[in-house]
Amino acid sequence: MLDFVTYVKPDYQVNWHHELLCKYIDDFVNKKIKRLMIFIPPQHGKSQIVSRSLPAFILGRNPKAKIVLASYSADLSSSFNRDCQRIIESEEYQEVFQDTKLNGKSSTEKGSWLKNTDIFETVGHGGFLKTTGVGGSLTGTPADYAIIDDPVKDSIEAMSPTYQVRNWNWYNDVLFTRIHNDSSILITQTRWDVRDLSGMLIQSMQDGSGEKWTVLSLPAIKTDNSNPEDPRAIGDALWPQRHSKEKLMQVRSQSIRTFESLYQQNPRPTQSGGEFYHQFRQERHT
What separation in angstroms does the CA of 147 have from each of 8, 184, 277? Predict the structure, then answer.
C-alpha cells in the first residue's frame, strides 16, 4: 500500500506513522484483518491513504471488487470518488494495473458502465466504488469492502444523542446489511465522543454483543509505552514536521476536551455512566 501511495503521489510526505498505517491496510486488503479501526488526529494524512488511494489499490489488485465508502456528508464522499477516479485514470496507474479501466477514453470495450460522482464501475469486470454520506442509501449494493472515513462532522453532531443513534442505526440497518461472510470493514476517524460510532462498536465488542475489531490508535503526543509499534519517546509529537508539539499544546491550552478527543483519541464522556448506551441498546432490542 505504501509503495502504491508514493507511486501515484510522489510528493506525498511519508512519516513513520504512514508506514505503520499502510502495514495495517495491507493486512486489511489481504483479508488478514476483517474489522479495522484507525484513530489518527486531524490533518495527519489518513484520508489520502484510506479514502483516495485505497479503493484504487483494491480495484487494481481485483477489478471485480465491490467497495462502498461513506463519510459524514455525500459531498465529501463524492470528492473522494472523483479523486479515486483521477488516480485510476492516471498514466502511472495504468502502467501497473492495465486491467482496471473506467468508462471513457481509456476504454475501448463497448457496453454501459457507470461513471459518475456517486459510483463508478470497472469496465468488463463489474467491480465498483459506491460512495455515500452516512445516513444515505445503499440499497441493492453488496460490499466486499466497506470503508467509513469520519462518520461525524463536528462536535455538535458527535455529542448529540440524536446523531449518535442515527449513525448507529445506519451502520446496523444499512451498511451491515450490505456485507457478506468475507466482507471487510474499515473505520477511520478522529475520536469525538465515547458514544461516537467507533465508541459504540468498541463497547459492543467489550460487552460481548459485537464483533471483534483490530484498533490502531495513534495520539498526537505520546503519553505512555502501551503501544509497542509506536517508536516515539514519551512526549514526542506524532508528525512534528507538520504539527509541532508547540502547536499541539496550544490546542490543549484552548480546549482540553478537544485536545483529548480529536488529538489524543481519548474522548471524555458528556453524560454520566453508560446511561445513554444502555438506553439505545434497550430500544434496539425492544
Answer: 20, 9, 24
Give strand pairing partners of 215.
37
pLDDT at position 273: 40
Each residue of 267-286: pLDDT tens digit? Answer: 876 654 445 555 555 554 55
Classified as helix, coil or strand, 114 is coil
Phi–psi pair at 67, nearest 5 degrees:
-125, 135
Give the single-character DSSP code of 10: T
Distance CA 211, CA 202 (A): 9
User: 30-33 long-range contacts, Cβ below 8 Å, gap at least 24?
Assistant: 31/182, 31/184, 33/184, 33/214
Say which residue the cell 459518475 belongs to: 116
Distance, in Å, from the CA atom of 120 to the CA atom of 117, rounded to the nearest integer, reads 8
Q: Which residues contact 197 (CB under 8 A, 6 or more apart)?
A: 148, 151, 152, 167, 168, 171, 187, 189
> How far is the CA of 241 from the CAs of 13, 115, 147, 174, in angstroms?
10, 38, 28, 40
Nearest C-alpha neighbor of 83 from the set 130, 122, 51, 44: 51
Mean pLDDT of the chain: 90
Q: In this structure, are residues 84 and 123 in contact, taking their beta carbons and an 8 Å threshold? A: no
Owner of C-alpha cell 461516537: 196
Mean pLDDT calculated for residue range 112-141 = 92
Q: What is the CA radius of gyration of the chain?
A: 19
Least confident of 131-140, 177-186, 217-226: 131-140
Residue 107 above 90 pLDDT?
no
Q: Is 42 left (phi over 0), alpha (psi -120 to 50) or beta?
A: beta
What distance in Å separates the CA atoms of residue 238 and residue 254, rounded to the nearest whole number?
20
Tell me if 18 sits within 8 A of 196, measured CB to CB: no
- Cell 466497506 -> residue: 146
CA distance 68 to 178: 9
